[in-house]
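Q: Hand in one record:
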Amino acid sequence: MKVDVLKLDAKKAGSVDLPAAIFGLEPKADLLNRMVTWQRAKRRAGTHKTKARGEINRTGAKWGRQKGSGGARHGNRKAGIFVGGAKAHGPKPRSHAIGMPKKMRALALRHALSAKARAGEIVVLDKVEVKEAKTKQVAAALGKLGLANALIVDGAQVNAEFARAARNVPDIDVLPVAGINVQDILRRHKLVLTKAALQALEERFK
């Protein structure tokens, strides 16, 4: 698949072929769903916790009469039915991570890239570099390119001034190629790759 290479000023700077092994696969929704689930589960801290009866500092002595109160015969203020009591079967700290083989994660990334290519939602830029970190200038440049909601992936290093300016633009994410991931690709309408990012992806999936 051949696509035009653009500059930040929306002018053409040639064209490039997208490798079929990376951008020409038939996207599988179940694989992409599994990958996003894996990412979101791995991100969870798992620090949620409630106190059990053994962790509540309240009396365990019987405080009322056995009969005559007109109510239940309670003998412990730690019970979950009381305000300040324990939580029965509450959450405990644990890992939410699920298993997914490394090869499947790599395949899911290629399927996500292929899904964007199939939908015509990939834009290739020559490079993303600016001399000054001016959000207004970067927002205007992205507007010329028609990028209102996009993930921009650069090479090994992202231009610091561009990243600083772009982080104030709504719905625009900027990542180095090492940070490219399925969830961020799918959550944005457009995927913007620099020539350096394309070269790095080709090397990665050789």
